Amino acid sequence: MKITSKTTIGEIVADDYRTAAIFTKYHIDFCCKGYRTIGEVCRNRDIAENILIEHIEASKKSSVNQSFDYKTWPSEAIADYITKTHHRYVAEKAPVIIQYLNKLCSIYGSVHPELHEIHTIFSKAVLDLTAHMKKEELVVFPFIQQMIKSQKEGTYLQTPPFVSIENPIAILKQEHETEGGRFRRIAALTNNYTPPNESCATYKAAFVLLQEFEKDLRKHMHLENNILFPKVLEIEKSFEKAS
């Protein structure tokens, strides 16, 4: 794709996930705020537009494997992948991180009081993410499957209690914004996940796990905000046109 000042960040990362590394380097949120254009971001951050685009184009030639071209996947496959990969990741890693944070707070909390805030923020994030994921697994994703089935079979699609898929999607995207803000705060409190010089192995491991958790969450939110949700909204529009 040709990148211009009017191209959105979400479109760029959806086209080639290798470009996410460039936005991360410049501290540009590509998952929750992927709707912003290159021009808008460069103006707000005082970044030379031509330099940013050059770096983005260079990243697309990187030898690093792009992994999967998620943009070409059917909506139901993306939803299934998110559930089995990213939802499972949260369920498996969150208890381990909380256990580490409990230990750090008890040993180092008096010397590093920021650990208590990190623990509070992360624990709240896990509670909200758990509810968020259940909402997707029990309500939103099943309705996506129902839409696709009706579309393929040409059958009537019953109006859901939330009227339009756009309504729960708007709520999910707002929840993504909340989590993005929480992890920006955690990154600030941990000095971008850099443990103190005197840190023990547990301290270092906890920060590594927190950083990996944020990285996984940002990809999770990117897949939904920039790829799955736009696809789903287009499917819903097809029913409106047919009626």
TrEMBL record:
Keyword Cytoplasm among record annotations: yes
Gene3D superfamilies per UniProt: nmb1532 protein domain like (1.20.120.520), SP0561-like (1.10.3910.10)
Pfam families assigned to the protein according to its UniProt record, in alphabetical order: Hemerythrin, ScdA_N
Domain called Hemerythrin-like: residue spans: 83-232
Subcellular location: Cytoplasm
Origin: domain of life: Bacteria
Chief location: cytoplasm
Tagged with keyword Cytoplasm: yes
Keyword field: Cytoplasm, Iron, Metal-binding
PANTHER family to which the protein is assigned, alphabetical: IRON-SULFUR CLUSTER REPAIR PROTEIN YTFE (PTHR36438:SF1)
Protein name: Iron-sulfur cluster repair di-iron protein
Organism annotation: Flavobacterium hungaricum
Gene name in the database record: ric
